[in-house]
Specification:
The complex is a heterotrimer of chains A (about 210), B (about 230) and C (about 220). Chain B is mainly α and about 230 residues long. Helices cover about 75% and strands about 0% of the residues of chain B. The chains are: A alpha/beta (about 210), B mainly alpha (about 230), C mainly alpha (about 220).
Chain lengths: ~210, ~230, ~220
């Protein structure tokens, strides 16, 4: 396991001069886990996007250290996996094609057909691998997102509303992924659900600002 | 800034009056007569107004693009305020330049519009400003609005050297100084004007530039106040 | 590493286009309608070479305006922008979309050329094929290099369909004029050397636009 650490310091985000959240700070290391909780609208998904490098913070900083070397969040494509309701797969491709194409774009040459097959089996989509994603139910789409997030065995796994659209079996799959992640790297879970929050050792609560 | 205001108004008023009042003569004596440039005659007076206005619009564009570029680096909304203020003024001056140009065209060449390279260039600049403001009104988030309009003005800025310098070389034009002009690059570039005319011209240039600075200053202060007020209310 | 990444993204876009045919359908219909309209307007009149050159690029321009923004707008509309941001560097995305747009524009020019040669068989005669070919290649590159970043900008805005031509036209004017001038020369059969000045301008334009867009792309793409 490659040791990864993340230090978030004084991060704040504003849109149109409205503050979403202010002064979020925490630090996390491989093997640790963090729950980000808060009411609807408190900025959980926004914070998640900032952690993944998809959004820049208005103030504050984000520092990743991989194997002792500080790395810019933009260079961390291979090390971050995300499951989020905002993430979409390509409907005009099949589940299998999505994973193949996205891996190739990521230029991750270690991802073999066998690994993709394993990932699909792990999330229970092997039988539907050749069907177009537009024919998938929302639960199946969620499972595909897990396959996509875990395929490259990322050291940083971020789950935004982990069990949305999933049935009981799906929830079991998620719990399995969470367990796997603790031996692989760090885990961040953004959720409203208090049960899910208990998966994590640390907690950050967002929101005092009700707009 | 008060000094800038008064100097600019004084200069422009002086230039307006002197430019129109000083008579032409074929053999200018002293400071109170302009030379009679054959072919241009009374119309030469236009140089004193049209060119400084066109010059100011270019200055405004450069200032606007510069602050846009700074916004991209600093993410400071004040830079965007300056960029937009300059652009608004640039739009106005561009419009004026187009109109003064069209009036001259009517008197000089017979029709208001001819699509020669310089005319086309000023028209394109007008389109760029229009596009810039259309883009801004289509973006809701302040941050996106500032960043994207800055990028657009820089991209547009990159095309400007192409159409201003390259096109007159390809196309022959009507403007003094274009490819087909037998007199060479024209009275402005070659400074063929007599000393007194030159002085008035340069004063006009200075006057309009100061005028721009003064208006820019007012617009920026106003925009900052509006910004503070809206923050206070939300 | 990023070269294979870029081509993987181009392949994805091409693959996607063949599956859905959104852009292709619209473009084909547009070209046919545009050329038909011109045909009706001209009837039996024989246009001069400069008019034909102008009409040629008018059709290319408007067709391009109805199609080139799709590369970014479709990602934004379907919500896959975030997915791409997770797997690809901004420079990879820029070059991939640029390549796709260049290929699309070039195919468009070929289509319009064939159509014109068929429909205006008497007047649209390319006397200087080498000039014409170089013009069309440089023209496609020019179109793509300027339009790609505008497409990225427009994808983030509200009134996308109308905004795209409004933003693109002032930027493309230099390109249009130069390319029309070179095409006229190609139709008239002027020697290749005569068009070299135009080609130099086109090459300069392509370089300046591509460099500028590449450097500024990240400010548009990343929120």
């Amino acid at each position: 396991m490659t040791p990864v650490s993340l230090t978030v310091d004084g991060v704040a985000k504003e849109f149109n001069r409205r503050s979403i959240f202010r002064d979020v700070s925490f630090s996390l290391r491989s093997g640790e886990s963090l729950a980000v909780t808060g009411r609807n609208g408190s900025g959980k998904s926004t914070l998640v996007k900032i952690i993944c490098g998809l959004l820049s913070p208005t103030r504050g900083s984000l520092a990743y250290v991989v194997d002792g070397k500080p790395i810019e969040v933009d260079a961390l494509k291979d090390h971050i996996g995300l499951v989020s309701p905002y993430l979409q797969m390509y409907d005009e491709f099949t589940g299998l094609e999505n994973l193949e194409v996205l891996s190739r774009i990521r230029a991750d040459h270690d991802i073999t057909a066998a690994l993709i097959a394993d990932a699909l089996r792990n999330v229970g989509l092997w039988d539907r691998r050749n069907d177009f994603v537009r024919t998938y139910s929302s639960g199946m789409k969620q499972r595909l997102k897990y396959a996509f997030a875990m395929l490259h065995r990322p050291e940083v796994l971020i789950l935004d509303e982990p069990t949305s659209n999933l049935d009981a079996e799906g929830i079991v799959m998620v719990e399995r992924c969470v367990k796997e992640q603790s031996s692989r790297g760090m885990l961040i879970v953004a959720t409203n659900d208090s049960d899910e929050a208990t998966w994590c050792s640390q907690r950050v609560v967002l929101g005092g600002e009700r707009k | 800034m008060k000094a800038v205001k008064f100097v600019s108004i004084t200069l422009i008023t002086f230039v307006l009056i002197a430019g129109l009042a000083i008579p032409l003569s074929s053999n200018p004596q002293g400071w109170l007569e302009f030379p009679n440039i054959p072919g241009l005659e009374q119309k030469a007076r236009n140089i004193l107004y049209h060119v400084p206005i066109a010059w100011t619009t270019v200055v405004a564009f450069l200032v606007g693009t510069f602050y846009g570029f700074r916004y991209l680096k600093t993410k400071n909304i004040d830079d965007d305020i300056k960029s937009v203020s300059a652009a608004g003024l640039g739009f106005m001056f561009c419009f004026l330049a187009t109109i003064t140009g069209a009036i001259w065209a009517k008197f000089n060449w017979g029709s208001f519009w001819n699509w020669d390279p310089r005319e086309t260039s000023i028209f394109i600049l007008l389109l760029i400003y229009g596009a810039y403001f259309a883009l801004r009104s289509a973006l809701e988030t302040e941050e996106k609005r500032a960043a994207l309009s800055a990028v657009y003005s820089i991209i547009a800025g990159i095309t400007v050297p192409f159409f201003i310098f390259v096109m007159p070389r390809i196309m022959s034009g009507l403007h003094p100084g274009a490819k087909g002009d037998p007199d060479g690059s024209g009275p402005v570039v070659q400074l063929k004007m007599s000393p007194n005319m030159l002085v008035i011209f340069l004063l006009g240039l200075l006057g309009f530039t100061l005028f721009f600075i003064w208006l820019f200053n007012i617009r920026v202060r106003l925009a900052r106040l509006e910004y503070k007020r809206s923050v206070h209310h939300s | 590493m990023s070269v294979s990444s870029t081509f993987a993204l181009v392949r994805k876009d091409v693959h996607s286009e063949f599956r859905t045919r959104y852009a292709l359908n619209a473009l084909v219909m547009f070209v046919v309608v545009a050329v038909a309209t011109i045909l009706f307007a001209l009837r039996s009149d024989q246009p001069t070479s400069s008019v034909l050159a102008g009409l040629y690029w008018v059709v290319v321009f408007f067709t391009a305006m109805s199609g080139l923004s799709r590369t970014f707008v479709s990602e934004e509309e379907r919500g896959t922008t975030m997915t791409l941001q997770l797997v690809a560097m901004p420079s990879t995305v820029y070059f991939a979309k640029l390549i796709f747009n260049t290929v699309l524009t070039f195919s468009l020019t070929i289509a319009v050329t064939i159509l014109y040669m068929t429909v205006f068989s008497d007047t649209f005669v390319i006397q200087s094929m080498s000039t014409f070919l170089v013009t069309v290649i440089l023209g496609s590159l020019g179109f793509a290099s300027a339009s790609t970043i505008i497409a990225a900008i427009v994808a983030k805005a509200n009134t996308r369909a109308t905004l795209y031509p409004v933003l693109s036209f002032p930027i493309l004017v230099v390109l249009l004029m130069t390319v029309m001038s070179a095409t006229t020369k190609a139709l008239d059969g002027e020697p290749f050397e005569g068009a070299v000045g135009d080609f130099q301008i086109l090459a300069g334009y392509i370089l300046a636009m591509t460099a500028g867009s590449y450097l500024l792309f990240e400010y548009v793409w990343k929120d």
